[in-house]
Amino acid sequence: MTNFNFRYASHPADARKYDTNEIREHFLIDNLFSKDEINLTYSMYDRYIVGGIMPVSKTLKLETIPYLKSNNFLDRREIGIVNVGGKGKISVDGEVFELDKKEALYIGSGCIEVLFSSLEENPALFYINSAPAHKKFPTKKVNKQNAEIVHMGDEKYANKRIINKLIVNSVVETCQVQMGLTELLPGNVWNTMPAHTHNRRMEAYFYFDLEEGQTIAHFMGEPEHTRHIFLENNQAVLSPEWSIHSGSGTANYSFIWGMAGENLDYGDMDIVAPNKLK
């Protein structure tokens, strides 16, 4: 079964006026994983799709949705996938890829049949990001052995972390989609600080591996008009091109960042100093 919903883009001047419920309604994605279902959110931010796939008792097929007006999901799209659960399997037009937790798969446009299944009692949780694509690139699996790994941060500022660049142009050829996985080390809680914006790209954040009963405050909005959303484990948030995207948890956690837009330059960002935020 495939469930889907639609999100319009918000003007920053309008977002300043949103109350708590409106902010959550427009930007929070809180229903990503449900047993034997595919859940998709189609956003007007660069027509980005954020979704979750949880195969438990059967194989799930990625099917088109009405917003795409296409025979197959990937007719004019590409997709990045990261497994955040138990070991799983993805079949792409008959070619099989096994993904352990925190491994990724890129699938280029034009592929027709994409099937998802779990390989152990603990089900796979496939987190997906998709964007329009103008060219077909080869399907490629990425694990930590062929990812670009960067150690950043300082315990002094509670932001010591490992950035795993999985689906980026230095590792995988893509049209738009870029994805990576950041792991906060124990005792560290801040991500993406100093904060930044990048008007050339939108972004989506997915938070996971958060201890039960804990929470994450995700900060968004214009640097001089910030807002926050409290998130639980396995929830995501849309980040407009005009918005910062930073967060702090009550315990350490991991998160997946995904992007699409004007360019593939990971370092293209406009830094905002911590003491300049309002």
How would you explain this protein's 3D organization?
- With 278 residues, the chain is mainly beta.
- The protein has one domain: Sandwich (Jelly Rolls).
- It has two helices and 24 strands.
- The protein has helices spanning 12-15, 20-27, and strands spanning 2-7, 28-29, 37-43, 49-54, 60-61, 77-83, 88-92, 95-99, 104-107, 114-118, 126-132, 140-142, 148-152, 161-167, 178-184, 190-191, 195-197, 201-208, 216-222, 225-231, 235-239, 246-249, 254-261, 270-272.
- The protein has a seven-stranded mixed beta sheet, with no helix packed on it. A seven-stranded antiparallel beta sheet has the order 2-21-18-23-15-14-13.
- Strand 19 and strand 20 (225-231) form a beta hairpin.
- The longest helix is centred in the N-terminal third of the chain and has 8 residues, at 20-27.
- It starts with a strand and ends in a 6-residue tail after the last strand.
Helical amount: under 10%
SSE sequence, one letter per element: EHHEEEEEEEEEEEEEEEEEEEEEEE
- Rounded mean pLDDT score: 95
Task: Please tell me what the overall shape is.
Answer: globular
Q: How many distinct helices?
A: 2
Estimate nothing, just give the exact number of structural domains: 1
InterPro entries: KduI (IPR007045), KduI/IolB_isomerase (IPR021120), KduI_N (IPR027449), RmlC-like_jellyroll (IPR014710), RmlC_Cupin_sf (IPR011051)
Catalytic activity: 5-dehydro-4-deoxy-D-glucuronate = 3-deoxy-D-glycero-2,5-hexodiulosonate
Enzyme class: isomerase
Protein name: 4-deoxy-L-threo-5-hexosulose-uronate ketol-isomerase
